[in-house]
Amino acid sequence: MPREASPEEYVEETMSLASLKLPIILFGAAQLLKHAVRQNPEFKARVKEHDFVAQIMARDEDIGRWIEFKDGAVASRAGLHDKPDIKLMFKNAKVGAALLTPPINWLEQINAQKDFTLSVDGPEHLTNWFAQTLMMSQTAGLKYGKRLRRGVTRYCNMTNGGPVFVDVKDGKILRMTPIDLADDDGASWTIEARGQKLTPPRKTTLAPHGQNAKSIVYSPDRLLYPMKRVDFDPNDERNPGNRGKSGYVRISWDEAIKIVTDEIKRQKREHGPGAITFSHGSHHTWGNIGYYLSALFRFANAVGMTRIHHNPDSWEGWYWGAVHHWGHTLRVGQSETYGTVEDCLQSCDMIVSWAADPESTSGSYGAQEGTTRRQWLKDPKLGIKVVHVDPYYNATAQFLPGKWFAPKPTTSVAMAMAIAYVWIKEDLYDKSYVETHTVGFDKWKAYLVGEEDGIAKTPEWQEKETGVPAKDVRALAREWGKKRVYLAPGGWGNGHGGACRNQTGIPWARVMVCLVAMQGLGKPGINMGNLQWGTPIDFNFYFPGYADGGMSGDLENTSMPVELYQRMPQLPTMNSNNQRIPRIFVPEAILDGKAEGYPWVGKSIEHQFPKFTYPAAGHSPVHMLYKYGGSILSTMNNTNRWVRMYQSPNLEFVVNQSIWFEGEAKFADVILPACTNFERTDISEWAGLGGYGHHGQQQLNHRVIVFQAPAIKPMGESKPDFWIFNELCKPLGLANYFSEGCNEIDWVKRAFLASDLPQHIPWRKFLKRGYFVVPAEKEKLRAPVSFRWFFENRKKDVPEAQPLPSDYTEEYLRGLQTQSGKLEFECSSLKRFNDPERPPIVKYEPSWEGAHSGELFERYPLQLLTPHSKYSFHTQGDGKDSFLLNIEDHRVNVDGYYYWIMRMNADDAKARGIGKHNLVKVFNDRGAVICAALPTQRLPRGVAHGYESSAIYDPMGEPGKSVDRGGCLNLLTPERTQTKSTHSLAGSNSLVQIELWDGSTQHMSAAFAAMEKDMQQDKEIKRTLKEAQLVPAK
C-alpha cells in the first residue's frame, strides 16, 4: 500500500501547487485589466486617473507580479518591483491563490482581512483605487436593460411607491411606468371566498408620490455641484448665525472633501469622542446598498459619532403602549398579520377602520396594492360591512362607504372604552376566551363600570369627550358584539400610523388591543387588518429587506444578525462612542447642552424602560452635524427649534448631503450633492422592509425584486452616496475598510448572491431583465392565519423568528411575549415599572393639548390634524415641479405660488369669512404657515386638517421670525413627548387659530422669542455690571 503523506508533506505539496497557481492567476488578472482598457472607454478613462506601480505578492516567497499604470496604459511583469508605490500582500502563495481563484468566496476574503493574511501597504487613495479597479475590470461593460424600438432602452428601478420601468432615449428619461407582468413571470395567487374566486391583476401599482419619480430626477431644485456658504470660512469667520439666510458658491469636489475631512479630524482632535453627530430622516431613496441603514451606517460607524437615537415615529403608541398587552417588540408593537387577507374575505362580517386611511397612506411602501383587494369589499356577495372612525371623512371612507364616526381628535380612547362598557353590560364579549386567553380583565372591567373611580365609561360619558352621539356608539357596540369583526387601527390596519402619533396615542393603541382581545383574537374572522397586509405570498424565498442593513456591517442597529450577516459576510462596523441624543430633543441638546430620553430597542419589552442622558460621561458635546437626506424641518415637531439650533455657535460645522436644495440643505456650511437612485446602481425588493417590518412584502399582490440600473448618468457633478462616503474615507484612511475594495455594483452582486435569487435566475439575465417575480406560494404551503395558533393553544407556527427565545415564559414558541404568555388587560411589565402616566390597566386621560387646555384652547380653538400625505413620501414626493402640484387636494396655485391645502369645517370657515382657496394664516405660539383654505363638511366643527411633510420650507422673512408659505405645518406641532418616560412623538394634533392672511410676513416663534429674551437679559446683565463698575465705592 502507498504510504499516506504526513501533515508536513501535505502542507508542502499544497504550498508547492499554490506557488505554481498564483503566478498564473496574477498573469490572468493583468491580462483582464489590459482587455478592459481596450474594450471599455470608461474603464480606459479611469486608468488614466493615476500613474503608479502596484505590487501583488506573497510575503514569504519571491512570488508576485507588478502592474504599472502610466498615461492610461497597463504594463505588467512577473516578479518583484524595486520601488512599488503600493503593495497588495498575501501571507503566502496558498492564501493568495485561494483568495484570487474565482468565484470570490467572500467569507474567506473577510476572514483573511480579519486574520491579517491579506494586507495592503501604501497611500490609502491608491490602494483603494487599485482594489476597486481590479474589481471593476470584471464588471466593465456589463449590459443592463432591454433594447426596445426606436432607440429606447428599458431599465427597471424602484421608488418608495412601487417598482417602475424606466424608458430612456439619448441619455434622457422618457417615462416611468408600473410593471406589467409577463406570462413567464411568477404565478399569481387566488383566494376562494364565499363562492368567489379572487385573483389580483398581473401588474404592479404605483403610489402618487412614485408617479412623480421623473420629476424627482429632473427637479429644478436638484443639487448639481458641491457648494459652500458664501460667508463660511473654515479657517476664519464661520458666521453660524447666517445659516438659512446666506447664499452659496460652487466649489470643487476636492475642496468639499478636504473641508469636510479636515473638520472631522479637527473635531476629534480638539473636542474628543462624541463631537460629531449624524442626522438622517426616517427614509431615503430606495435601495439596499445606497440606503441610510446601509452605506451611511457603515460610514458613520467608521468615523465615530454621537448617535441620534430615533423614536419609533410611526408606531409611537404601539411600542410604548400596546407591547405591554401582547408583546411584538421586534415589530415595534404592531401585530403579526399572516393569512389575514384570506381569513378576512372568507370569515369576517365587518371591518372597523379606526384612525385608518390606507387609500392615502399605505403607499409608503405598498403603493395601491391594497386598493385592488379592498375593491373586492364592494361586492355584495362577500357581505362584509365597513365602518370608519376618524375625525376626517378620509379617502378610504369615500372609497368604501359605510357609517362614519367622527370623534374629536385625541378622544377616541373614550369611545373605545364606551364600546367595551356596552359589551360588558350586555354580555357581548367572548367570556370563555377572556377567561382562558387573557389575564387582568376584572381589573379593567372594574375601571370601565366605575367601581374604581366612580365614573362609568358609558356611551353618554364618552359623548361629552368625543362629540359622538351615545346612541350611535351603543349601536356600533351591539353590532360589533354580534359579528366577526376585523379591527383595523392605523393605515396598515395592524398597528402603524393613525392616532398612535397624537397626545393620547399610547392609551389608544392599548385600548385597540383590549377591544380585539375581548372578542377573541385569532378566531376565524376576528383579527386585525384591512386587507393591506396578509397576502398569501411565498415567505420562505429569502431576499433581505432594507432594515437588514445592506453593507452596513452594523450588527447592533440593523437586523443584519437575523440572517443577512451569515449569508453576506462583511467586515463588522461598530461605533466606539457611547453617547446618544434622543432625536426629538436634538435642538435642546445642542442649544442647552442637555437632553434625556428612553430607548427604542426591540429585543424585549423591558428595553424601553432605562433612561439615557446627554451628555454622556467623558464625552464631548456635539459640535459638528452631518445631515443626510430628507428634511427634519418638515417631519419633526415645533421645528423652529431646529432653525434656532442650526444658527447656534455651538454647532461649529454643518455638512448636508442631499439631492435637492430644499429644507435643511439651506442651513449647511458645505453641501454635498447626491444623485437619485435612478442614476446609480442598487438592488431591492418592493416593500421589502425587513427588521421592524418583517415580511412587509405581504402588502403586495406579487413579490417583485428589482435590479436598480443606472438609467442615466448622474446629473451635473452629483454623485452616488457610496462614492461620496468612499471619497471622504480616503483622507481618513478608512476607504478600504468602508468599501472592502469593492465598487457599488460589487456590493449589489454580493446582495444578489446572499439571496435566493441565484437559484431562480442567473446574474447577467437578472441585470438585463431588471426584475424577478417570486411565484405565489402553493395553497397547501400558505402561511397559517396569525394568532390562530394562540386561539387553538398551539405553538406559534407563523414564519417569523420573534420574539427572542428567552422571552417565552413557559415553553419556546408557546404563548405571547408577555410575562403570563397571554393577552394582558393588566400589564405585568407596567406593574413592575410603576409609571403614573402608563398605569397597568389602560385609562382615559384627556389630551394635554386639546379642549381641556384652558386658556391655550381659548386662544387657539381649532384642533389641527397633520397625518401623512397621499402625495408626498415624507419630503421626497412634494415640490420638484411635478404634476402633483396641480392636484388641488395637495397644493393650489394662488397668484403664481403653489400653497399647501388647509381643510377646515365649512361653518368654522364661514364664521371667519374664509372662502375656498383664500390664503389663510394658520398659527400658534410655535409658528405660522400660510395655506390655501378648503372649507368642507368632511370635518366636524373645531377641527382642521392639513397633511404634514411638506418638502418646502419657505420663510417670507428671517427664519424663525416670519411666516412660512411652503406648507411646513410641523412648525406648529408640539415637541412634548406623549408621556415623560417615553421618547414618543405627539405631533399629529395641535391647537391653532386660522384667520384670513392680511399679507403680514412677521411672526415671532416661541423658540426665537425665548432666544431674544435671553439675549436681552444678557444685555441687561452686562449693562448693570458696566454701570456698577462706574459707581465709586462708598
Helices, strands, pairings?
Layout lengths: L6 H33 L1 H7 L4 E7 L5 E7 L2 E6 L7 E5 L2 H8 L5 H10 L2 E4 L2 H16 L6 E2 L5 E7 L2 E8 L2 E6 L13 E3 L2 E3 L9 H4 L1 H6 L8 E3 L18 E3 L2 H18 L5 E5 L11 H12 L2 E4 L6 H11 L13 H8 L2 E5 L3 H4 L7 H6 L10 E5 L5 H5 L3 E3 L6 H14 L5 H7 E2 L1 H8 L10 H8 L3 H12 L3 E5 L15 H15 L7 E2 L35 H4 L12 E3 L3 H7 L2 E3 L14 E3 L9 E5 L11 H7 L6 E6 L11 E4 L8 E4 L17 E6 L12 H9 L5 H5 L4 H11 L8 H7 L1 E4 L13 H4 L31 E2 L3 H6 L21 H5 L2 E4 L25 E4 L2 E9 H6 L7 E6 L2 E10 L6 E3 L43 E8 L9 H25 L4
Parallel strand pairs: 1-4, 14-15, 14-25, 15-22, 16-17, 16-20, 17-18, 19-31, 20-21, 25-26, 26-27, 32-37, 34-36
Antiparallel strand pairs: 1-2, 2-3, 4-5, 6-7, 7-8, 8-9, 10-11, 12-13, 12-27, 23-24, 28-29, 29-30, 32-38, 33-34, 34-37, 35-36, 35-38
Can you put this structure into words, describing what you see?
Helix content is 30%, strand content 17%. The protein has 32 helices and 38 strands. The protein starts with 6 loop residues before the first helix and ends with a helix. Strands 13-12-27-26-25-14-15-22 form an eight-stranded mixed sheet, with helices on one face. Strands 32-37-34-36-35-38 form a six-stranded mixed β-barrel. The longest helix is centred in the N-terminal third of the chain and has 33 residues, at 7-39. The mean pLDDT is 95.
Question: Keyphrases for this structure?
Answer:
6-stranded mixed β-barrel, 38 strands, alpha/beta, 1034 residues, 8-stranded mixed sheet, 32 helices, single chain
